[in-house]
């Protein structure tokens, strides 16, 4: 039996404070990205690292995929104005 660790939805534009999306979110909703950044830094990423360190948990090669951000980083269907 082969095992795989699948990590879904670790998107740079949510985590990088200089990304277009983070800048937009902070401009329009100050403090809105703090929870996401804290949760990823303190819980999500350390748990991914821990799971990857377990022998046999990642026998397959790691890979990633990328898509272009929607509307230059803004949420779908939005220009950033509500």
Folded structure, characterized:
With 82 residues, the protein is an all-alpha fold. It has a domain at 12-57. It is 40% helix and 0% strand. The protein starts with 11 loop residues before the first helix and ends in a 29-residue tail after the last helix.
List the helices and strands and how they pair.
Elements: H1 12-15, H2 20-28, H3 34-53
Mean pLDDT: 74
Indicate the proportion of strand residues.
Answer: under 5%
The Rg value, from CA coordinates, equals 16 Å
- What profile does the largest beta sheet have? none
Uncertain runs: 77-82
Quote the distance from N terminus to C terminus: 50 Å
Portion of residues within helices: 40-55%
Helices and strands: which structural class?
mainly alpha
Overall shape:
elongated
Tally of alpha and pi helices: 3
Element order, helices and strands?
Answer: HHH
How many strand segments? Answer: 0
């Amino acid at each position: 039996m082969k095992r795989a660790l699948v990590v879904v939805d670790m998107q740079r534009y949510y985590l990088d404070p200089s990304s277009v999306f983070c800048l937009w979110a902070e401009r329009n909703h100050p403090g809105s990205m703090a929870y996401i950044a804290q949760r990823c830094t303190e819980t999500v990423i350390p748990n991914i690292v821990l799971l990857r360190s377990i022998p046999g948990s990642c026998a397959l090669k790691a890979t990633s995929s990328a898509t272009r951000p929607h509307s230059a980083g803004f949420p779908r269907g939005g220009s950033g104005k509500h």
